[in-house]
């Protein structure tokens, strides 16, 4: 490998990191419930992705890194066997306080789900992955994705207090009702 090859890969990886970090942070925060843990999770995932960058196809880089992120979160959770809720969320592109309150409430409700259901719900409805893509990221069957999504959404519907005027957003419309 020449210096030019490594330099080109480093430039491509730096561009990928800049583009993908906000999405990865939001997903990581929903999985962990903690800004600090989300930062650590994203950083660890990007380090692992960088180590394999020469094998990662550009059009699959985000999916690859998201799978690394989910797997690393699962490994970390298994080691510590517990999770802690934290109140602050990563920066959001919209600053509407009602929507922020709504998102915070949804994130707190997600934290009540078992880890597998939360991963499936976040990837399917927040990251907007198909059932097949979610199954691939998590390394489970499509049937397991359908089952976990169904159980997770049923739990959220039971726990979610429906306000008199519902807010709709692309991330929640039609998915958490």
Automatic annotation (TrEMBL):
At the top level of its lineage, which domain of life is listed?
Bacteria
- Domain (RNA polymerase sigma factor 70 region 4 type) ranges: 104-156
Read off the SUPFAM superfamilies from this record. Answer: Sigma2 domain of RNA polymerase sigma factors, Sigma3 and sigma4 domains of RNA polymerase sigma factors
Tell me the keywords, alphabetical order.
DNA-binding, Sigma factor, Transcription, Transcription regulation
Molecular-function GO terms, alphabetical: DNA binding; sigma factor activity
Instruction: Pinpoint the RNA polymerase sigma-70 region domain residues.
Output: 17-81
Q: Does the keyword DNA-binding apply?
A: yes
InterPro entries associated with the record? RNA_pol_sigma-70-like, RNA_pol_sigma-70_dom, RNA_pol_sigma-E_actinobac, RNA_pol_sigma70_r2, RNA_pol_sigma70_r4_t2, RNA_pol_sigma_r2, RNA_pol_sigma_r3/r4-like, WH-like_DNA-bd_sf
Q: Which GO BP terms sit in this record?
A: DNA-templated transcription initiation
As for family, the record states: Belongs to the sigma-70 factor family. ECF subfamily.
Q: What is this protein called?
A: RNA polymerase sigma-70 factor, sigma-E family
What organism is recorded for this protein? Pedococcus cremeus
């Amino acid at each position: 490998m020449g210096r030019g090859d490594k330099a080109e890969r480093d430039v491509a990886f730096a561009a990928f990191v800049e583009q993908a970090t906000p999405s990865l942070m939001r997903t990581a925060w929903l999985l962990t419930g903690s800004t600090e843990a989300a930062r650590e999770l994203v950083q660890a995932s990007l380090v692992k992705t960088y180590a394999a960058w020469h094998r990662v196809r550009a059009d699959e880089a985000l999916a690859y890194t998201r799978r690394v992120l989910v797997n690393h979160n699962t490994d970390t959770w298994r080691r510590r066997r517990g999770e802690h809720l934290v109140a602050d969320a990563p920066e959001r592109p919209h600053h509407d306080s009602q929507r922020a309150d709504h998102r915070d409430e949804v994130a707190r409700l997600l934290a009540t789900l078992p880890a597998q259901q939360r991963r499936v719900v976040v990837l399917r409805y927040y990251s907007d992955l198909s059932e097949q893509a979610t199954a691939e990221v998590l390394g489970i069957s499509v049937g397991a994705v359908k089952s976990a999504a169904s159980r997770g959404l049923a739990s959220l519907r039971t726990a979610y207090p429906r306000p008199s005027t519902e807010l709709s957003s692309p991330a929640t419309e039609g998915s958490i009702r």
